[in-house]
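User: Can you help me understand a structure? I only have the sequence.
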Amino acid sequence: MSEITRVLKTFIGYLKRPDLYPELGRKILKNTINRNNAFKGKEKTHSWAASKAISQEEAINKLFGMHSEGFGSEFQDVLKHAGDREKECPIKMGGAGALELIYYACEFSNAQHVVETGVAYGWSSLAALLSLEKRHGMLYSSDMPYLGQNGDQYVGYVVPQNLKTNWKLFRFADKESLPKIFTETSSFDVVHYDSDKSYDGRIWAYQELYRNLRKGGVFISDDIGDNSAYQDFCEKNGIDTAVVEFEGKYVGVFIK
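Assistant: Let's start by predicting it. Here is the structure, written out as tokens:
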């Protein structure tokens, strides 16, 4: 599919969904007037993140007092099945991230309520749900429809059916999904951000997620090296954050 065809199909997809018009307006602004917003402060934050970076295993031990070695063996069959599901999926989406970090954040906080932005195949959802099911907890996820790609049916594709009873999926942009989620539950044990990559989009979501994170809860954000939103947010709020280097990217994590 050519880029022009993809853009056209996506635009038509938006036009068919009046409930997504607010996000369409934001997309147009983001790709015209605010085109440089996605990379604001990137060079500054890349150096900052590199100077603080530790491994995922170190972060789990340092923050949660736990060891991550058992995750792969305990859930070997589930993870293998999920990997097979990803391979057979005809739509290409984002791959697995720092799964152990998400899982042990939920274990550390005895999570009952977790909110995440960004789902794709559902790897991060799977990591949270493997912990939440032990306590009959609930995961609330925000994920935009895959307009123009015929990919909606594959969102969360790697999540086993038996875990979906502990999952509520909201198919809107964050600015529409998060207010809906917060009307259902206003206090979360873990938040995980992995959606809008723009500076302004991150700052808005960080503020909303942080406000609804309980004291002692865990905040995780993927891809913090894209721009300086995460660094600026932490410095503004006096937050001492850990930075995890994972597969050439940086993940921010702290306990509120």
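Now, to help you interpret it: The two ends are 44 Å apart (CA to CA). The longest helix spans residues 3-15. Let me know which part you'd like to focus on.
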